[in-house]
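ok so i was messing around last nite and threw this chain in just to see what happens. nothing serious, just curious
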Amino acid sequence: MQPTTITRLLVPLDGSAEAAAAIDPALRIARSLQIPLELLTVHDPIHGKWAKDIDDIADRLAYDRVEVALVGAGWAGDVISSAVSEQPGTVVCMATHNRDRFSRLVVGSVTEHVLHHVPAPVVMIGPHYQPGETDGGFQRALVCQDGTPRDASSLATAESWARQLNLELELVHVAAPGEEARAEPRLHGAAEHLRKGGLTTTTTILTSSEPATRITEILTQRPGALAILNGHARVGLTKFVLGSISSKLLEHSPIPLLITRSP
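result:
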C-alpha cells in the first residue's frame, strides 16, 4: 500500500462516550494539517446506536473545518468503508469499546470490519487513551518493528506521516533475550535511511520475552505521541480475532495506534 496525502479525518460516532474519545486525536491531526474533520453517524433508531447530538458535538469543537454526516440507513462498517473509498486520503480515527473484548474481537463487528477492509491506515483509540497535555499536534511517532519484511510498510507510513505532520520518529523493537545484537544493524540501517531523507530518527531496542507488555511500558513513557504498527505482522490483524500483541496494545495503550497494512 502506497502512503498517500492525508486529506480528511473521519470519526465514526455512535452516541457513546467511548466512540467520542476518538475526536481528540483526530482534531489534533486535522488542525495540524488544516484539513476537514468529519463526524459520521449512522441513524439506527432500532438499536439506538447513533449520535443524536452530533451537531452539538461539532458546534463545541474549536475548529472551523468540522463537517457532519448523518447517514439515514446501512451498517456502520459498510458506510465507513464506502466513505473512505469515495475520497482518497481519508483517514479513519475510531475508538474501540470494552465490549469488543480485545483478546477476541467479535467477527462482524464494526471495528474488525474497518481494520480488514479499509486499505488506508486506521488510527485506533483504546479505553486507556490519555489526551495530550496540550492542544497542539503530535510531535513524535513510535514505529514498532518486528524484524520481518513487512516492517517496510510501517516504515513507509511513518515516513509519509512524519513529513506531513513534522514528526520525530523513534524506531522500536523488542528483542528476545540474547537476540539484541541481531536486531541492531537492521534497526540502525532503517534509521539512517530516514535520517538521510531529512527526518529526525532515533532507535530503541528493548529486551523481553513479553513484547506486548514491554511495548506498552514504553508507550506509557511517551505521552502525547503516536504509535505506528503493521497490522499483518506478528502484531497483526491476521490474529486479531484470536488475540494478539496488537489487541493487547490497543487495550492498554495510553496513546493512539496507527495501524497500517502490508500489500
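not much to say yet. Residues 140-260 form a domain with the Rossmann fold fold (CATH 3.40.50.620).
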